[in-house]
Amino acid sequence: MLITLTRAVSRTTFIPVAIKYLLTASTTSRLLVAGSRNVFTSPVSCNDEVKKAQAATKSREPTIFSKILDKSIPADILYEDTECIAFRDVSPQAPVHFLVIPRKPLTGIDDATDSDEKLLGHLLLVAKKVAEQEKLDKGYRIVINNGPDGSQSVYHLHLHIMGGRQMKWPPG
């Protein structure tokens, strides 16, 4: 693990910050934050997300997102209105990574109907507004994971917005 982290450090322009991370991190999932932007993230989370998605089940039971909505668990909230909420991802995959979720309990995009058209448009506009707030002026990626093969690990519709670095293509 230390070798992997050291290699990652040698490729970053944030060497002093990354070295501080190496000296203080107790697990590979810890992050450093410079202001509100992560400068170092662990490269091990991709397979973890696939495993979580394979274990997840579509259900109408409360999810971690419904608990964030009802404030029974804390989140770093970036935006909130009557239709949705935006907050930082707890396991960021980019220097800036936040989620936008509707208050309406849609399990995924497949659960949306024509009557949700206005809500879905609103989610995209909120994503744009928060991306501007987060100064993602060079661009960002919006992702909706849907179903097991789409690596959806939480069955409450959510948009991932990632930026702050060049995104790779193809993503999958």
TrEMBL record:
<feature type="active site" description="Tele-AMP-histidine intermediate">
    <location>
        <position position="158"/>
    </location>
</feature>
<protein>
    <recommendedName>
        <fullName>HIT domain-containing protein</fullName>
    </recommendedName>
</protein>
<dbReference type="Pfam" id="PF01230">
    <property type="entry name" value="HIT"/>
</dbReference>
<feature type="short sequence motif" description="Histidine triad motif">
    <location>
        <begin position="156"/>
        <end position="160"/>
    </location>
</feature>
<feature type="domain" description="HIT">
    <location>
        <begin position="64"/>
        <end position="172"/>
    </location>
</feature>
<dbReference type="InterPro" id="IPR036265">
    <property type="entry name" value="HIT-like_sf"/>
</dbReference>
<dbReference type="InterPro" id="IPR011146">
    <property type="entry name" value="HIT-like"/>
</dbReference>
<dbReference type="GO" id="GO:0003824">
    <property type="term" value="F:catalytic activity"/>
</dbReference>
<dbReference type="InterPro" id="IPR019808">
    <property type="entry name" value="Histidine_triad_CS"/>
</dbReference>
<dbReference type="InterPro" id="IPR001310">
    <property type="entry name" value="Histidine_triad_HIT"/>
</dbReference>
